[in-house]
Amino acid sequence: MTDQTTVQWKENMAFDVELEGHALKFDASKEFGGSGYGPKPKSLLLSALGGCTGMDVVSMLKKMRMPFDEFKIDVTGELSSEHPKVYEKIHIAYRFKGSALDRTKIERAVELSQTQYCGVTVMLAHTAKITYDIELQA
């Protein structure tokens, strides 16, 4: 399988992105000539990580017949101080709300995502120490 994207320069540090029929925008931080046109490309890696592991977890919990009312993932990344600046530490916080949550099933789904299924985790783990926690709320 092959993925493809088109990135078109707009002005200054701003770019328009076309990916799978969807339009995105990129920009640098103001410190590096950006103007708030869009998020920084590197920051989108954290969103990709959250989306990838989130889809894994939802899929597995559906198969386990484990219902939940809400599911949110907060991903935080710490960049290195030296160039090339890469994420050295990433923390994923899995947040669930529901009246019938089964911690064992949720932990298993998250573990499988992190160790076997999420390709974004595997890629980022080459440069970053990835940790996670799980919060359950009734």
What features would you describe in this structure?
With 138 residues, the chain is an alpha+beta fold. Helices cover 32% and strands 35% of the residues. The chain has three helices and six strands. It has helices spanning 41-63, 103-117, 119-124, and strands at 5-11, 14-19, 22-26, 70-79, 87-97, 129-137. α1 (41-63) packs across α2 (103-117). It is elongated. The relative contact order is 0.15. The model has no long low-confidence stretch (mean pLDDT 97).
Query: Would you list the SSEs in sequence order as H and E?
Result: EEEHEEHHE
What share of residues is helical? 25-40%
Overall radius of gyration: 17 Å
Number of helices: 3
Strand arrangement, major sheet = 1-2-3
* Main beta-sheet strand count, sense and barrel state: 3 strands, antiparallel
- Residues in β-strands, percent: 25-35%
Mean pLDDT: 97
Secondary-structure-based class equals: alpha+beta
Features of this protein?
138 residues; alpha+beta
Topology readout:
Layout: E1 5-11, E2 14-19, E3 22-26, H1 41-63, E4 70-79, E5 87-97, H2 103-117, H3 119-124, E6 129-137
Parallel strand pairs: 5-6
Antiparallel strand pairs: 1-2, 2-3, 4-5
Helix pairs in contact: 1-2
